């Protein structure tokens, strides 16, 4: 489940009053940081003036039989999550966003989703939090599920404001808030390659896996692989840094050209080791952050079938760097995709929850800085042989199920090597 909570700013920041469904519909991309395609979004309101609080987003379930349980879960997540942060919502606003397919109209989508909207309203009411407004947004128009007055809310819906012409757009521009395109566009930057190059990448992953497996089964070989992975990742980051990024689409294409299939395969498989991944997470600020983010995005695109689960590691690192550098919408998208790739990936679970709760990433940054400083200091001293360094267990002895606590998860590569699942095969799971 992809829950998007964003904490509100200080009380002395500029405040914008939104009046009516039209301004609420226009404000949604600025609240989320992107246009949420095919999504249900719920926003908590606090106080008599309806101050925005927590936000939560989930892809609209395709099967109507899922609507009732999903509505109950969403209502509970938003309300209980707000309570944990110290403030129970006084009301909730609901948005159902879905674009029509060929031959379908926005009005038809609105009617099709009406039962889902009603389930959501009922679920919130059952927890004693009323739904102030429920809107459907489709095909450049919006409809209210709460207003029965056809004079202001006609059956054909109301036209959305032209982009950049509303009060919210002006306030967002003044505050430096950007809308990063649509959710679909943001996810596409991280999706596996669909071009003819995908077959070559798969062969490179197959070959690298066959070469690395025997080395990973002994401790000395595993540490050598870790060093090689991090050294290669640093070389790729330097290569990317020397080729400045341009527009997102052009930048991604150029970055893909700068990373060979064999290089991508080696780093992807090396990152399945949790200690190696944690070392890579130290590149989260300063001049390293931008090139690291470009590398993690590029590697996520190289996790082609049947290696989709392997994307959990680079996607989580992309989410972490995005969050660390202040891009919370980008972080949530990347972490949500990481959990879609592997719902048991504990590092992604922990980061996603922390980001959604509005926590400060500086706490984790301090820990990673401390790890790096301590490791640097140990290089100049004789190691204390009375303390055994933390190591990953050989693949054959790792646990079969990721723990619910803070321990790091088992890599998908390990599960496949131990015969627990065929490559690329996994039980279907929801978005995190």
Helix content: 40-55%
Rg over alpha carbons: 23 Å
What's the main sheet like?
6 strands, mixed
According to DSSP, the number of beta strands is 6
The secondary-structure class comes to: alpha+beta
Main sheet strand line-up? 2-1-3-4-5-6
Q: Which consecutive residue ranges, at least 5 long each, have pLDDT under 50?
A: 1-13, 382-432
Q: Provide a count of the helices.
A: 16
First and last CA, distance: 4 Å
> What is the N-to-C succession of helices and strands?
HEEHEHEEEHHHHHHHHHHHHH
Give the CA-based shape. Answer: elongated
Round the mean pLDDT to the nearest integer and report it: 82
Beta-strand percent range: 5-15%
Task: Write a compact overview of the structure shown.
The chain has helices at 20-32, 67-84, 106-126, 167-175, 183-188, 197-216, 219-241, 248-258, 261-270, 274-280, 287-301, 312-324, 328-341, 346-356, 362-379, 412-417, and strands at residues 39-46, 51-59, 91-97, 131-138, 141-144, 158-159. It has 432 residues and is α+β, with helices and mostly antiparallel strands. α2 (67-84) crosses α3, α7 (219-241) packs across α9 and α7 runs parallel beside α10.
């Amino acid at each position: 489940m992809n829950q998007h909570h964003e904490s509100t700013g200080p009380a002395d920041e500029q405040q914008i009053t939104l009046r009516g469904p039209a301004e609420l519909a226009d404000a949604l991309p600025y609240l989320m940081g992107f246009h949420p395609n095919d999504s249900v979004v719920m926003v908590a309101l606090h106080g008599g003036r309806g101050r925005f609080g927590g936000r939560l987003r989930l892809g609209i379930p395709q099967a109507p039989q899922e609507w009732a349980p999903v509505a109950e879960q969403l209502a509970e997540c938003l309300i209980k999550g707000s309570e944990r942060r110290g403030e129970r919502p006084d009301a909730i606003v609901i948005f159902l966003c879905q674009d029509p397919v060929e031959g379908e109209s926005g009005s038809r989508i609105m009617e099709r989703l009406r039962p889902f909207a009603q389930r959501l309203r009922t679920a919130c009411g059952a927890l004693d939090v009323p739904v102030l407004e429920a809107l459907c947004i489709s095909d450049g128009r919006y409809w209210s599920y709460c207003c029965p007055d056809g004079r202001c809310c006609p059956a054909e819906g109301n036209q959305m404001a032209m982009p950049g012409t509303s009060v919210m757009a002006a306030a967002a521009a003044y505050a430096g808030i950007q809308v990063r395109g649509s959710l679909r566009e943001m996810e596409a930057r991280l999706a596996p390659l669909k071009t003819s190059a995908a077959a070559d990448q798969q062969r490179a992953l197959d070959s690298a896996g066959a070469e690395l497996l025997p080395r990973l089964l002994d401790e000395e070989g595993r540490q050598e692989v870790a060093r090689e992975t991090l050294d290669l990742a640093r070389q790729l980051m330097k290569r990317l840094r020397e080729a400045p990024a341009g527009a997102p689409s052009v930048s991604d294409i150029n970055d893909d050209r700068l990373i060979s299939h064999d290089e991508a395969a080696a780093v992807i498989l090396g990152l399945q080791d949790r200690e190696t991944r944690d070392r890579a997470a130290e590149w989260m600020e300063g001049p390293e952050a931008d090139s690291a983010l470009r590398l993690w995005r590029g590697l996520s695109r190289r996790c082609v079938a049947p290696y989709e689960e392997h994307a959990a590691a680079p996607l989580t690192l992309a989410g972490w760097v995005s969050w660390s550098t202040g891009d919370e919408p980008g972080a949530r998208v990347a972490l949500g995709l990481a959990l879609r790739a592997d719902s048991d990936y504990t590092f992604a679970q922990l980061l996603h929850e922390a980001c959604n709760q509005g926590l400060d990433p500086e706490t984790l940054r301090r820990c990673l800085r401390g790890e790096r400083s301590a490791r640097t200091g140990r290089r100049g001293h004789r190691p204390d042989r009375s303390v055994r360094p933390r190591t990953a267990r050989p693949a054959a002895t790792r646990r079969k199920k990721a723990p619910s606590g803070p321990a790091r998860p088992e890599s998908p590569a390990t599960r496949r090597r131990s015969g627990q699942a065929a490559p690329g095969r996994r039980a279907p799971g929801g978005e995190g």
